Amino acid sequence: LPSITAEYLFEHAPELRLKSFRQLIRLPELLAADGVWLCSSVRGIIEVTSIDGCPTRRSPLTPRLTGLLGF
């Protein structure tokens, strides 16, 4: 299902001087990303700290993205 929360973030990313785009990526690219989040209409965004036991990078953007959503 399309995510209302993710769509809102894509539309409002420029307010935080961020570029947004959609792209299919493989696991190595995901693990190398500057940040990984899950979106929820109830919980906002949740930063992913590991995938299959491999740590992901912590992002300093998380509080700004959370604030943008009003959480």
Describe what you observe in this structure.
There is one protein chain. The chain has helices at about 5-10, 25-30, 60-70, and strands at about 35-40, 45, 50, 55. By secondary structure, it is an alpha+beta fold. The strands form 2 sheets. Strands 1-2 form a two-stranded antiparallel sheet. The chain has a two-stranded antiparallel sheet with strand order 3-4. Strand 1 and strand 2 (about 45) form a beta hairpin. The radius of gyration is 12 Å and the shape is globular. The model has no long low-confidence stretch (mean pLDDT about 95).
Attribute tags:
two-stranded antiparallel ribbon; globular; two-stranded antiparallel sheet; alpha+beta; 3 helices
Total of helices: 3
Low-confidence regions: none
Quick one: how many beta strands?
4
- Could you give the order of the helices and strands? HHEEEEH
List the strand order in the largest sheet: 1-2
Q: What Rg is obtained from the alpha carbons, in whole angstroms? A: 12 Å
Structural class of the secondary structure composition? Answer: alpha+beta
| Helicity, as a percent range | 25-40%
Give the overall pLDDT as a whole number: 93
Q: What does the overall shape look like?
A: globular
Q: What distance lies between the first and last C-alpha atoms, to the nearest angstrom?
A: 22 Å
Largest sheet geometry: 2 strands, antiparallel
**How much β-strand is present in the residues?**
15-25%
